[in-house]
Amino acid sequence: MKVPQSMEAFVDLSAGGVVYEGPRSMVQFEVESTEMIFKDSHFLVVEIVLKRMLKYHLAATYVPSALLIMVTTITLFVDEKHYGSTIMVHLTTMLVMFTLYQSVSDSMPKTAYLKFIDIWLLYGIIVPFVTFIVETMLILLASNLSSNVSTISFGK
Predict the structure, then answer these.
(1) What is this structure's pTM?
(2) At a CB cut-off of 8 Å and minimum separation 6, what does 2 contact?
(3) CA-to-CA distance for 32 and 65, rounded, in angstroms?
(4) How far apart are CA 36 and CA 16, in angstroms?
(5) Is the pLDDT of residue 153 over 70?
(6) Measured between alpha carbons, how far is residue 122 from residues 48, 148, 156 in Å?
(7) How far does CA 114 lie from the centroid of its chain?
């Protein structure tokens, strides 16, 4: 709180106690502490320290994205006859991960640096893309090998 110049003669600021009476636990944050800091005779700061709730991010972001990454990685072990289905899994996983990334980015505070959750979700977008490329390369290699084997003749 800063006192306007026109009111400085009438107002004298002094630090006192701050009592936060709202809920201590919110959806994403928990109120850790409150403090009133006296800067000078015309400037007073009320500091509210919030702590992120880890359980919220585990349940809403990390566990679902880890499961999606596992599903898209498991498709590398599926027979190549099911190529169309596995590609759809990769593309759907990328779409879901991007949507999750967007919603988390919108709800997080804007910073100039990447947070761990940003890195994790970008990793979650990259994994399905890389597995998509690997699956496609394997199919192309298998089809090239099968076409080359049929044209090779072992004569006497």
Answers:
(1) 0.66
(2) 42, 43, 44
(3) 29
(4) 7
(5) no
(6) 31, 39, 57
(7) 10
